[in-house]
Specification:
The chain is of the alpha+beta class. Helix content is 29%, strand content 19%.
């Protein structure tokens, strides 16, 4: 185990250093100091179906797969980054502003970006189906109100444990908190990366909020899996917000985010609806 741990942490350090060298700003590489959920996975025979694409709640941890058999298919990683392929040529807007925050990423990370995506896709469907009058191009106003964050409405940032009708989703923290990690599941897949055959010693490291899935297989395979955990953040003893910061950190890192909370696109939408419906029922 000690050699396996040493190797995996070395690969995490190598990834962190390489990523740091490609950025334009100088930052300290993330130091990974521990492993979690270490397991050896052996599969005998086949074929087996692949997993549905999903995200495991692991940020800031990373997933490590060390393939140990010949012709072993790798985990499939999906790129779901939104782009402007469907925008008009005259549209030169580079940045999108939501809640007074400038967001350069096209990933869905909060309720307002989800609203924007829904309405944009509806307009696109209407454009491609001019004879279909059943396509609604606007989100219902009450749903808009819930998912839009401003000084008069903070529902999407309210901790769900604070209301009795949403307390069973307290593991979400808030709607926006969970969409930050899982929101990209709403986005279509633009690219998928995977290897049909890997040699023993091939190592795949994926970020904790990457969309991925176990591959379909046709035969036996063996690999080692683990979660790479970064060094814990230091807090000053006189920091008045130390306890709250530790709670926020534990809701997004360390041993807590071990991947046990995971979502596929359908399950995410079902749970979001289960949160929105009681809010509509008891608050509107």
């Amino acid at each position: 185990y000690s050699k396996l741990k040493q190797y995996m942490l070395h690969m995490c350090a190598k990834r962190s250093t390489q990523r740091n060298s490609t950025t334009t700003t100088t930052t300290t590489p993330v130091l990974y100091t521990n492993l979690g959920n270490v397991m050896f996975i052996l599969q005998f025979g086949g074929p087996t179906y692949g997993q549905v694409r999903h995200i495991d709640n692991m940020v800031p941890n990373v997933q490590i797969c060390l393939y140990m058999s010949y012709d072993c298919p790798s985990t499939i990683v999906y790129d779901t980054t939104l782009n402007n392929d469907h925008d008009d040529d005259e549209d030169e807007e580079e940045d999108v502003y939501y809640g007074n925050d400038e967001i350069n990423s096209r990933d869905i990370v909060n309720g307002e970006m989800l609203l924007h995506y829904w309405e944009k896709e509806a307009l696109l469907q209407q454009h491609n189906n001019l004879n279909n009058n059943n396509i609604t191009t606007t989100v219902p106003n009450l749903i808009k109100e819930i998912l839009t964050n401003n000084e008069n409405n903070t529902t999407c940032n309210t901790k769900l444990k604070s209301k009795w009708y949403t307390k069973y989703f307290s593991f979400w923290n808030s709607i926006n908190h969970t969409l930050t990690t899982f929101g990209k599941l709403y986005q279509p897949v633009s690219l998928q990366l995977g290897f049909d055959k890997t040699d023993p010693g091939t190592t795949l490291i994926a970020g904790g909020n990457e969309v991925h899935a176990g591959p379909p297989t046709v035969g036996s395979r063996m690999f080692a899996f683990a979660i790479g955990i970064p060094e814990e953040e230091d807090y000053d003893d006189d920091d008045a917000n130390k306890e709250e910061k530790v709670k926020e950190s534990s809701s997004g890192g360390g041993d807590t985010n071990d991947g046990e909370v995971q979502y596929s696109p359908v399950l995410l939408h079902i749970d979001l609806c289960c949160i929105l419906f009681p809010i509509l029922d008891y608050e509107y």
